[in-house]
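Write out the 3D structure for:
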Amino acid sequence: MVENDEWRPSPRSRVYVYVQIAEHIKGQIRAGELALEEPLLPEPELSSRYGVAINTLRRAIRHLREQGIVETVPAKGTFVIAMPEGSESK
């Protein structure tokens, strides 16, 4: 069951769902909810939390990797390695 305050991507948006998810994760990093070197939740858990297919979630993570914001380490997880543009370093 989804709580009312949990964010979900909008299927009616003109923005691709994977981009919405990537932007949401970047927002969490900017807000300090995800810190540098902190791991993201496992893919199956994120997929379930966002209510999307695992391939959509993986595409969002790949999008973040291509921007240099996260790094995936096989058998370890995906970690935040950089602040998104528009963020102030502290």
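The first strand starts at residue 70 and ends at 73.
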